[in-house]
Amino acid sequence: MCGICGEYNYRSGKPADKEKLIKMANSIIHRGPDDSGIDMQGSIGLSFRRLSILDLSIAGHQPMKDSDGIITIVFNGEIFNFNELRAELRNRGYSFQSNTDTEVIIYAYKQWGEEFLDRMNGMFGLALWDKKQQKLIIARDRIGIKPIYYHESNDGIVFSSEIKALFEHGCVIPEVEPGSVYNFLRYRYTPAPETIYSGVKKLAPGMAITIENGSKKIWRWWNYRPNSFLGKKREDTVIQELSEIYTNALRRHLISDVPVGLLLSGGVDSALLLAMMKKEKGDWKTFSVGYGSLYEDDELQDAMKTAEYFNSDHHQVLIDQKMFNRSLPKIISYLEEPVATSSIVPMYYVCQRARQDVTVALVGQGPDELFGGYNRHVGIRIGEYYRYLPKRMRSFLEKIFKKKMNNELFRRALFALGDDDRKSRYQNVFSIEDASLIGSLFSEDSRENILNAQPIFLWDELTSFISDADELTGFQYLELRSSLPDELLMYSDKLSMAHSLELRVPYVDKEIVEYAEGLSQSLKMSCFKRKYIHKRVAKRFLPREIINRKKRAFASNVVKGWFRESVDTFLLDSIKKKHAKIYSFLDYNNVQDLIKANQNGMDYHKLIFSLIVLEQVVSVWG
What we know:
Layout: E1 2-8, H1 18-27, E2 35-41, E3 44-50, E4 64-65, E5 71-79, H2 82-91, H3 101-112, H4 116-119, E6 122-130, E7 135-140, E8 149-152, E9 157-160, H5 163-169, H6 178-187, E10 201-202, E11 207-212, E12 215-220, H7 235-253, E13 260-263, H8 268-278, E14 285-290, H9 300-310, E15 313-318, H10 321-335, H11 344-354, E16 360-362, H12 367-371, H13 375-386, H14 391-403, H15 408-416, H16 422-430, H17 435-440, H18 444-450, H19 459-462, H20 471-481, H21 483-497, E17 502-504, H22 510-516, H23 521-524, H24 532-538, H25 544-547, H26 556-567, H27 573-576, H28 588-599, H29 605-621
Parallel strand pairs: 13-14, 13-16, 14-15, 16-17
Antiparallel strand pairs: 1-3, 1-9, 2-3, 4-5, 5-6, 6-7, 7-11, 8-9, 8-10, 11-12
């Protein structure tokens, strides 16, 4: 895993600026402390920071070229099927000078053109320059594990793995875009291709930018459409096939020339990874984060029991509330974009500890989105039945919900359950509050800028892929391509790379994702039992006591409690001051009314914390 930067002045034709490209790369040195490189070819320049994972020799230096010097690439990530691709390319007459996956990408492009992207199974953000064709391809992996940010100007395009490099280049200044802030406050993340900064875009998952002979196109290279053929398979057949797919994906994700470990929670998903790892050769190190036995939802003991069961070399990180309060502003600054989730603090500390012993760590993210592990997935299924009810019965239930309006979960249910428009319904499920409430927080001057803000306009294209999918699968299709990459995977990338640690996510391997999206919702959630088929697979590897444990997710409930206490104490002061930066686009009085309502019993803590995170980000970067 590494960091890439580039400048291509395809509009003006002026030479790329070498000094600026060096500064860009140096600003993300944490992503690649082992090596650096730069390549200048007139109006295009590429720079790079390397974290050595495969082929630690100088043969892995980037930017990398083919033997003819025609193709140049900078590549961040890992291609997990590179050995198979290399064997196929050798059979076609290509020779290789290294054992890296980077070199495989070059010759895959030479063999298959732009179709090389679909042949790769991995996580990546890359830029490939074809001197002969005068073509630049910038691409992001299917699920968006690796980020790509860019800015367009009258000269051309500047891009990087992180936003700070664009600011370092000077092509764009940190200026907040109110429409994107509206989306963040509604969803707690900013959906691609927008960021909260004017002039800064992020490439959406499974998308690419091609610039050839002065002409640019942005296109979707991953066009997988869910189908229902797997719904007709016997359950025991699905369990067997999914077990094999899991095992093969895990093996691919263990390929490395540096030590590999595992971030271990107390739950099923990471325990299943450890169980499969133990079937492979190696003594594995595991890392957990917790808060001590005083907290009911602490999971250090559960994680320790799992580690003991599988005899891993286990290490723990203990966080207290003082550490939480002290580190939160710094952690938020690493994110660059605001993400208001309780998991950012434990993720930061467990990655910090893991990096002391390993360079690569696996993480058990993905099954919740793939197989229906969240409360919102239960709500999606309930909503199907709810919309079949007679209008009189629905009106009666809505009256009950309205009496519970102080409860955030009931408010979200009221907004979403009865909505007959599919895309609107999904948007309301994601929303932490009603759109009108979010809009009321903006100043009069800024409201005009958010009127035309499409909450998730990328969905306009994606919804065409789910016309034949059942309700839960359709929602998860969007979830995997929006909230997972733009929230969970984004902060995992930023907070792990802050410590020069590569995180790998085996459960979102291409083969797993495409198989899971073909399963019917009845196999994902049976009688409202979440992650049904996933847990049936896990029973082949794990004892019942692990399968039946309460879901804790790095003890997020403990952190949520600290969030609430922080909202009521020192962090709240940051948005109580009239000179806070967010009031350049938000209405001070309306925000204070929201705070008072929360103190008087309305549950707005998620929205208030989002405002606090926003203020922290804008104070650092805006």
